[in-house]
Write a structure and sequence with these properties.
Helix content: under 10%
CATH architecture of the largest domain: Sandwich
Number of domains: 3
Low-confidence stretches: 1-23
CATH topology of the largest domain: Immunoglobulin-like
CATH class of the largest domain: Mainly Beta
Strand content: over 45%
Order of helices and strands: HHEEEEEEEEEEEEEEEEEEEEEEEEE
Largest sheet: 5 strands, mixed
Shape: elongated
Structural class: mainly beta
Oligomer: single chain
Length: 339
């Protein structure tokens, strides 16, 4: 009871301050940015309207566009709408504008996105100035290739971006890398930034992707490279690429085995029964016409043999029987196995 009375007493004594706090709790409505840029081929420019500092009570504001050097219907689409917040809602709202590329131009044009007629909360920043960067004769910016390769031991790779088919006005484009099978921080350093050209500048620009050899690997690992957000020019056809980093570690050796089985001959070449069979010679190699390896199985009763430690690839095999005078039979049919 005493605490309740003290709280009530404080409210009475500081009534003016309490009234001000209640007003502030409604928040302030304003544009999220005082200025924004949009390349002419962007499509839709996101424009955010915020309610900051409180969300007590419902609120609304009128959002509209106004011409500057850019003209509605030619360079952008008109916006004329009311944005609303329910009580307790402090989320950003959008007043997005569609940018038109129907009439390409050179240089820059501006228009305005404005707020007015706020209800339920006062206005803060009431205007965003939007600059459209024209892409007429600004050319095309593209990666110089769709694929790049570099050794892990190279330390870095340079990626080139070209500006072609026009160089009127300044231009810029953003670049960035992303993991493929390579991992940023382990196999390479994540890279992003912006490349810029001056008016009438068509010289290639480049950026460097650092490559790490700290953890050697075998085979190739990939990094994705992309261009985005072109201003003063349009993106060309090659706006993304794959960088393959070739590892410095030796590829693991693959080995396998082949099991050969045969039936002992019963007749000599002259048709007489075999009487002095002594063993078998197994011939094998990487070509069916060049069987340079030989294994002797000195056991006439044997009907199979396992050849191990065969490197990867296709191996070819044939067998000859031999007698006590070391006379060999004709070579059997060739068989093969891929390891």
């Amino acid at each position: 009871m005493i605490a309740a009375l003290l709280a009530l007493f404080g409210a009475i004594v500081t009534g003016g301050a309490t009234a001000a706090a209640a007003g502030t709790a409604t928040g302030t409505i304003g544009m999220s940015w005082a200025s924004a840029g949009a390349e002419q081929n962007l499509g839709v420019r996101l424009i955010a309207v915020n309610r900051r500092g409180g969300s007590s009570g419902a609120a609304s504001v009128h959002c509209s566009t106004a011409d500057g050097t850019a003209v509605a219907g030619r360079d952008y689409a008109v916006i004329n709408r009311v944005i609303t917040w329910a009580s307790g809602d402090g989320a950003d709202k959008d007043c997005n504008v569609t940018i038109s590329n129907a009439t390409p131009f050179t240089g820059q044009r501006i228009f305005y996105v404005k707020l007015s007629n706020a209800t339920g909360a006062p206005l803060g920043t009431v205007q965003t100035v939007v600059t459209i960067y024209g892409d007429k004769d600004g050319g095309l910016v593209s990666l110089s290739a769709a694929t790049y390769t570099a050794s892990q031991s190279a330390g870095s790779v340079t990626i080139t971006v070209n500006r072609a088919s026009g160089a009127s006005g300044g231009a810029s484009v953003n670049y960035a890398t992303a993991n493929g099978t390579a991992i940023a921080g382990t196999n390479y350093t994540s890279t992003h930034g912006t490349l810029s050209w001056r008016n009438h500048d068509a010289a290639p620009k480049s950026f460097v992707i650092p490559i790490s050899a700290a953890t050697a690997f075998a085979g190739g690992k990939t990094v994705a490279v992309a261009l985005a957000g072109a201003q003063g020019a349009s993106l060309g056809s090659t706006k993304s690429a794959i960088l393959t980093i070739n590892g410095t570690a030796a590829a693991p050796t693959t080995t396998g085995s082949a099991t050969l089985s045969w039936t002992a001959p019963t007749l000599d070449a002259d048709g007489s029964p075999v009487s002095n069979l002594t063993g078998y010679n197994i011939y094998y190699g990487k070509s069916p016409t060049t069987l340079t390896n030989v294994i002797t199985v000195n056991n006439p009763a044997s009907g199979s043999h396992v050849i191990g430690n065969l490197a990867s690839g296709t191996w070819y095999f044939g067998i000859k029987a031999y007698n006590s005078q070391a006379d060999e039979s004709a070579l059997s049919s060739i068989v093969s196995k891929t390891i």
